From TrEMBL, chain B:
Pfam families: ABC_tran (PF00005). Residues 2-238 form the ABC transporter domain. It comes from the Bacteria. The keyword ATP-binding applies. This is ATP-binding cassette domain-containing protein. It comes from Taishania pollutisoli. GO terms for molecular function: ATP binding; ATP hydrolysis activity. Keywords: ATP-binding, Nucleotide-binding, Transport. Signal peptide: none annotated.
Length: 248, 253
């Protein structure tokens, strides 16, 4: 098992080396990047929006309902909602959701291309298939995931405000004061740096499992599941490491 | 011309190809035939570089493919067209986009020039007006013809066809065989066809290479394959009772 793990890690880095070679034609590459931004990024906006509004609402309601101590200032709900959202929910939980949605999509797309010989067709034409297929996805994810995360942060805070005010558990003024209280812009930087790492990991690992699929439709399904599992675990491990390095 | 010299290939200690030597001539349809699992597809994939042989040389008009850098191989690959068993069309692209793909990647033609070339190639395979269809909307025979159109878009010097008739009815198979033969002569290409379809052997095989248990077993033309005494070839060509009867009748005459 350890041997297989080491083999996979070695093969993964070999793949990354080939992925980052010079594109065959910049005009084709540019078009591929914009196509992938639409597939990976724009098409994920709705799920990110729904998740963010509801989780933001739940966070603020849970904090408000557990605030029994009168010594706690009234702006605590806004403050904790903001911190939770910026530090953890938007970069990490949204990335985990995207690991499922985007990761399985990439893995099954490339896996299907592999078993139907479309990747062989690219190679025989003289196209560097890894570069052609994977690099635009990585660029698209790395450039658009931060946009999604910022969008998520904003919607989550809006969801929290709406739930708090509509349930009568707090006021708009206190909530906004809490959001602004003790704000450190470094927290946003930390969240976005994490997101960049997660975007790279999600796309490259999913592409790895898709590209090295062998067999038929069943194996494509297995590769897709494996990609999501490995992606999720890797995101959690990298999250821990980055938190240690950047916050402590 | 493509020359294969002393090629050996194995997978995980299991040797598939044993010291293969062969010459595939320009302007001819060269067939590689053999039973399933005999190693013919591995040989073809070794020639085009999808597999790397352990030993040997593969020469494209004297250029040793195995000693080339990735960039040099890319240049040779631009001269290769390949028709895959399952067509291998890009299913996210239309027929027209599939045919234009190699042109977009490797030429500086304008959009109009690329479209003209795609239309010419589609016309050549009798698919005029099918530009906007997606591969999933096309029949198996149409997909093969689109794949041929894509393969010839760059005017290749070498054409590889991996079991071009698999999954096709006899009538469509004859159409595909005819197209392969016509474009080989028309563009003076070196064509290699992997097949176990005896109709193709008789219809289009200028040169035939028989692979058995990973070894080159026999080489000749399509006429001599019917009269050879080689037992393995007899077992392969006259496998069905119907063909056995034909052979007996031929011998009686």
């Amino acid at each position: 098992m350890l041997k297989k793990l080491l083999e996979n890690i070695g093969r993964y880095f070999q793949m990354i080396w080939i992925v980052f070679s010079k594109p065959e034609k910049w005009s084709v590459f540019r078009k591929r990047v914009f196509d992938e931004i639409e597939i990976i990024g724009i098409n994920s906006i709705s799920i990110v929006a729904i998740m963010s509004v509801f989780i933001g609402a739940v966070i603020s309601l849970q904090i408000a309902s557990n605030m029994d101590n009168p010594l706690l200032p009234s702006y605590t709900v806004g403050y904790i909602t903001r911190s939770t959202t910026i530090l953890e929910f938007s970069p990490t939980i949204i990335s985990l959701i995207l690991a499922g949605k985007v990761g399985s999509n990439i893995s099954s797309e490339i896996g299907t291309m592999k078993i139907t010989e479309q990747i062989d067709a690219l190679e025989i034409m003289g196209v560097n298939s890894l570069n052609y297929l994977v690099l635009p996805k990585i660029i698209a994810a790395v450039s658009f995931f931060p946009v999604l995360v910022i969008f998520s942060m904003a919607l989550s805070l809006v969801g929290g405000w709406f739930a708090l005010v509509s349930s009568g558990m707090g006021s708009t003024e206190d909530y906004i004061y809490g959001i602004r209280a003790f704000f450190r812009s470094y927290e946003v930087v930390y969240a976005l740096v994490k997101t960049l790492f997660f975007a790279f990991i999600i796309v490259s690992i999913a592409a790895f499992y898709g590209y090295y699929t062998k067999g038929g439709a069943l194996e494509v399904g297995k590769a897709s599941t494996q990609a999501v599992v490995v992606n999720s675990i890797t995101v959690l491990i990298v999250n821990l490491i980055l938190t240690q390095v950047m916050l402590l | 011309m493509i020359e294969v010299r002393n090629v050996n290939k194995s997978f995980g200690g299991n040797q598939i190809l044993f010291d293969i030597n062969a010459t595939f001539e320009q302007g001819k349809v060269n067939l590689i035939i053999g039973q399933s699992g005999s190693g013919k597809s591995v040989l073809a994939k070794s020639i085009v570089g999808l597999h790397v042989p352990e030993t040997g040389e593969i020469l494209f008009d004297g250029r040793n493919f195995l000693n080339m850098t990735r960039v040099e191989k890319t240049e040779v690959r631009k001269e290769i067209g390949m028709l895959f068993q399952g067509s291998a069309l890009f299913d996210s692209m239309t027929v027209e986009e599939n045919v234009m793909f190699p042109l977009k990647m490797f030429t500086n033609k304008t959009s109009k020039e690329m479209l003209d070339r795609a239309n010419f190639c589609l016309e050549r395979v009798n698919l005029t007006g099918k530009n906007k269809l997606y591969p999933a909307e096309c029949s198996g025979g149409m997909q093969k013809r689109i794949a041929i159109a894509r393969a010839i878009a760059m005017q290749p010097k070498y054409l590889f066809c991996d079991e071009p008739n698999s999954g096709l009815d006899p009538k469509t198979s004859i159409v595909i065989d005819g197209l392969i033969k016509e474009i080989t002569y028309e563009y003076n290409m070196t064509t290699i066809v992997i097949t176990h379809d005896m109709n193709s052997v008789i219809e289009i095989g200028d040169r035939v290479l028989f692979i058995h248990q990973g070894k080159k077993w026999w080489e000749g033309d399509r006429k001599s394959i019917l009269t050879t005494d080689n037992q393995e070839i007899i077992d392969f060509v006259y496998a069905s009772n119907f063909m056995k009867e034909i052979r007996e009748n031929m011998q009686k005459k």
